[in-house]
Write a structure and sequence with these properties.
With 92 residues, the chain is mainly alpha-helical. It has one domain. The chain is 73% helix and 0% strand.
Length: 92
């Protein structure tokens, strides 16, 4: 059986990016990892970007500045590591 860390290393996403998907979609991190990997390998980068942007907006609305900063960093990392299919709009 593969460990969480082994799966994370193979999915091409960071732990923070997986966490954003899990929170947004209300699912376990392992399932979010599978969804994220699927999206990355099937031209779904824009969907992941939008998930993170939605989570940033939620954190801002909830006044959770710490979570907002973590998600902003996750978005910057995602854009840097998955530049294809990205728009050049400003971070929310």
């Amino acid at each position: 059986m593969l460990t969480y860390e082994e799966c994370l290393a193979m999915c091409d996403l960071s732990e923070e990016e997986i966490g954003a998907i899990a929170a947004h979609e209300h699912m376990d991190a392992m399932i979010a990892m599978a969804l994220g990997h699927y999206l990355v390998t099937h031209e779904g980068e824009q969907k992941i970007r939008q998930i993170i942007l939605d989570d940033i907006a939620t954190a801002r609305r909830d006044g959770d500045r710490g979570r907002e900063q973590v998600l902003r960093a996750a978005l910057q990392h995602f854009i840097a590591t998955h530049p294809s299919h990205q728009t050049h709009s400003a971070v929310a």
